Amino acid sequence: MMDAVKTGLDDAAGSAMNPQHLELTPLAQPGPLTEMERFMFECWGYLLVPDVLSQAECDETLEAAKRVHGSQPAEKFKQLGRGFETEPAIERLMDHPAVLPKVRGIYGDRFVLQAAWCTVMPANSEHSSWHQDGSSAYDYKDVSYPLPLLQLRASYALTDQSELNTGNMIMIPGSHRSPVPLPKAARKQVYASPIQHILRVKRGSVLLFHNGVWHSPMPSLLPYDRYNMHFIYSPPWVRLADRQATDPAWLARTTPLRRALAGDFARPDAPFGGGMPVIPFED
Ligand SMILES: O=C(O)CCC(=O)C(=O)O
């Protein structure tokens, strides 16, 4: 792992941009959103919650993620959806008590799981691609400025990313409020801007972020594939993204809370009106 640090791609460029490697990490605690966390989320556009999963839970979820991807070494960077329907270890994360109360603290009592993407980055690969989340079919930036929160993403690091060049998420703090885009010329670069923040997170940490924050994965020099599990929560009227409809057999066997999160409304034609009951939270 240390070799990854010493021989990291573009380390010189990174040092030139941010010689002191200053880090201002918006650290949050598992559980309900505090006032300070809300403030940091509004300023930075993201929060980092360490130690959400134990090593054993990471192992179990990682095995599940590998099964979703076919248990073969990855050939390319890839995202696959709806793993929660077949893998109980992934399903458990959609309403994890360390994270769901934060989603609720930000959205209130009505939202859905728009998608659950399991992302693999192959050993020793690069996928530098700075972007904001949303829809290329109808860009969120065309809806309004400042960019509305339409996708709140909880990203579970299933492989360790505490060293540089381990497929770390890189974020540009506050960029969800920028009226101008990240310059095109920088979007394939690892070190795109002096204000970028390379997250160095232990496996089992969760990054919670606003769709408008410009981000990219750092290259991975790891000798094994890197996995992240992303859960995307949206207002109830946003169309599901990793599935046309949730598997009826899964809906029948899961809990009322998870069924509600999956967007199983009595009147699916009217989730923006009276069709959506409040999510059956326990409190
Ligand atoms: O897991 C990753 O590398 C992040 C992928 C990503 O940036 C995205 O899905 O928007």
Would you give an account of this structure?
The chain is an alpha+beta fold. The protein has one domain: q2cbj1_9rhob like domain (Jelly Rolls), CATH 2.60.120. It has eight helices and nine strands. The chain has helices at 2-6, 11-17, 35-44, 55-68, 88-91, 100-107, 248-253, 256-261, and strands at residues 46-49, 78-80, 112-121, 152-157, 169-171, 197-198, 206-210, 215-217, 226-234. A six-stranded antiparallel β-sheet has the order 1-7-4-9-3-2. The radius of gyration is 18 Å and the shape is globular. The termini are far apart. The protein binds 2-oxoglutaric acid. 2-oxoglutaric acid (AKG) binds next to strand 3, strand 8 and strand 9.
What labels would you give this structure?
283 residues; alpha+beta; Jelly Rolls; six-stranded antiparallel sheet; three-stranded antiparallel sheet; 8 helices; 21% helix; 16% strand; globular; disordered N terminus; binds 2-oxoglutaric acid
Report the span from N to C terminus: 43 Å
CATH architecture: Sandwich
Described by strand count, sense and barrel closure, the largest sheet is:
6 strands, antiparallel
- Average pLDDT reading: 92
Q: Helix share of residues? A: 10-25%
Count of helical regions: 8
Low-confidence stretches are 1-7
CATH class: Mainly Beta
- Look at the structure and name the CATH superfamily: q2cbj1_9rhob like domain
Class computed from helices, strands and strand pairing: alpha+beta
What is the CA-atom radius of gyration, in angstroms?
A: 18 Å
Q: Which band does the percent of strand residues land in?
A: 15-25%
Please report the total strand number as a whole number.
9
CATH topology: Jelly Rolls
SSE string? HHHEHEHHEEEEEEEHH
Biggest sheet: strand arrangement: 1-7-4-9-3-2
**What oligomeric assembly is this protein in?**
single chain
Q: Any ligands, ions or cofactors bound here, and which?
A: 2-oxoglutaric acid
- Shape from CA axes? globular
